[in-house]
Design brief:
Blueprint (H helix, E strand, L loop, with lengths): L8 E10 L2 E3 L3 E7 L2 E7 L17 H7 L3 E10 L2 E9 L8 E8 L2 E6 L5 E6 L6 E7 L2 E7 L3 E7 L7 H9 L4 H7 L3 E8 L2 E7 L8 E4 L4 E6 L5 E8 L1
Antiparallel strand pairs: 1-2, 1-3, 1-9, 3-4, 4-5, 5-6, 6-7, 7-8, 8-9, 10-11, 10-17, 11-12, 12-13, 13-14, 14-15, 15-16, 16-17
Helix pairs in contact: 1-2
């Protein structure tokens, strides 16, 4: 029997298989600390950022390409080998169906079979020490931070409302509202490593975060990352 204790840690996905679909290249990280989790999924194929300084420099179809990424965070419940991920923050808004997987171990790997959708994922646990989970606020948005002395994954976003289907469609035709774009990209999902007290982003839904120190740790966690227009946003992540 698999319980929540068996799912603790930093998991990296090898692949997902579904009818007519298979993906081995999307970079997927799921970090679980107690009941809290955060998840980031970034496709390998992204727009060329050469000569670009910020998201505002990208075309709308290129921004639609970035929205192929996923990010979500919240809590899990586990019963009879079934794990339910309750997405309290979700980059794409309200999911169409609940996120429920039937979990099993095979040869040291974790297998997730979809309960409400037909898919199978293979996960491997990264060799990281025990993780800590934090519920935080980021201005008027929610935040979940999963971290230990070496790695972190931070998720920031509002309470999910609606979804991004219409936004993606408008981006693909180039007529999305600039205000809606800026509002959506205020949410961020970012994973990285600690260099002393600085958290350096390795993977993010905003690729302009990558390679720079976006977090500082001490008596509190401080965010310092780029906005849609390339300005630096400084924000204290306060305990929720």
């Amino acid at each position: 029997m698999i319980g929540a204790a068996d799912l603790q840690g930093h998991w990296q996905r090898d692949w997902i298989k579904a009818p007519g679909f298979e993906d081995h290249t999307t970079r997927v990280h799921w970090m679980q600390a107690g009941a809290l989790f955060a998840d980031i999924r970034v496709p390998l194929d992204r727009p060329d950022l050469t000569g670009r300084d910020c998201l505002a420099d990208l075309t709308q179809p290129e921004l639609a390409q970035l929205l192929a990424a996923e990010g979500f965070a919240g809590t899990i419940t586990v019963a009879e080998n079934r794990c339910t991920w309750h997405r309290e923050i979700n980059w794409h808004g309200e999911p169409d169906i609940n996120d429920v997987g039937l979990m099993s171990f095979e040869g040291g790997a974790l297998i997730e079979d979809g309960v409400l959708a037909e898919y199978r994922e293979l996960w491997r646990r990264a060799p990281n020490e025990k993780l800590r989970g934090h519920r935080l606020t980021f201005g008027d948005q929610r935040a979940v931070l999963i971290e230990n002395h070496s790695v972190f994954l931070v998720a920031v976003g509002p309470v999910p409302q609606g979804n991004t289907t219409a936004l993606v469609a408008h981006l693909q035709t180039g007529d999305a509202s600039p205000g809606v774009l800026r509002q959506h990209f205020e949410s961020t999902y970012c994973m990285g490593y600690w260099d002393g007290e600085s958290g350096v982003a390795e993977l993010a839904t905003n690729p302009f975060c990558e390679g720079r120190a976006v977090l500082q740790r001490g008596s509190a966690f401080h965010w310092s990352g780029p906005t849609f227009d390339g300005e630096t946003q400084a924000q204290v992540l306060r305990a929720a």
